[in-house]
Amino acid sequence: MRGWNTGDMPDQEGRVAVVTGANSGLGYVAARELARKGACVVLACRSETRAKAAAERLRGETPDANVETRLVDLGDLRSVHRFAERFPYDRLDLLVNNAGVMAVPYGTTADGFETQFGVNHLGHFALTGLLLPRLLAAEPGARVVTVSSMMHAMANVDLRDPNGLRSYHRWTAYARSKTANLLFTHALARRLADAGSAVVAAAAHPGYASTGLAAGVGGRGSRLLMELGDRAIAQSAETGALPILYAATADAVRPDSFTGPSFAMWRGAPAPSWRAPRTRDDRVAEWLWEVSERMTGVVWDQRLA
Description:
Layout: E1 16-20, H1 25-36, E2 40-45, H2 48-61, E3 66-71, H3 77-85, E4 94-97, H4 115-137, E5 143-147, H5 170-194, E6 200-204, E7 209-210, H6 220-232, E8 235-236, H7 237-240, H8 242-249, E9 258-263, E10 267-272, H9 282-296
Helix pairs in contact: 3-4, 4-5, 4-9, 5-9
């Protein structure tokens, strides 16, 4: 895996991919590189204006790109349902759960969930469940790649208060949502295996990458620190997207794997990444799955029950 880059990506001709949060940062780079390799890429974005601007920019950089834009607000389950109901393809070869918010002040989604847990985890949980029939129709070879963070190590999910109602600290809430991403991947991989499915569920993280996500960080001091870090030590979104693209396309990727940068999890080419052992806790993963089904109202395909 040493030195893997986009030149090593296998051909994606004939594959249909959805990338959430594809209008900027990691999502944009991932969508562009998948399109360059021949995939039909759906840019799943919250803002129509930003989505169209991203598609125009992408076509300028990759004239033959087969891309389209579709709106989805992961903080609004009605929007997630609309996206799935109007999805125009019978099959889906790749779903990249990339969109997210980081360390924002306390707020709630349209459905009343704490924003970071609601967008980063519950929105993607619901979207993946609703698109599952299309993923199953594309096996073997279909994948779900969920983008987590090395910051997941800061906090576990709170079994007593998953929605953060008792107390709120923006960085702890972010870490919990990223732990939830890994627990979701673990539970999904296990359920797919138990069902005899060849769909691969994997996770990835960008290390410390300059992606623009810090713009939403609450607190002027925190934003300034993030901006300084971006300038001094962060790798570019181009490099930060490599672990995501590896997890999405490389033949060696295995279910429930976690890919990140090779150098201290911060920078470099894709490599297997350390993850907190608690992110492979079967009991907690199943608890989170059940809670997520109740909170979203999305009951998954019975083949994975």
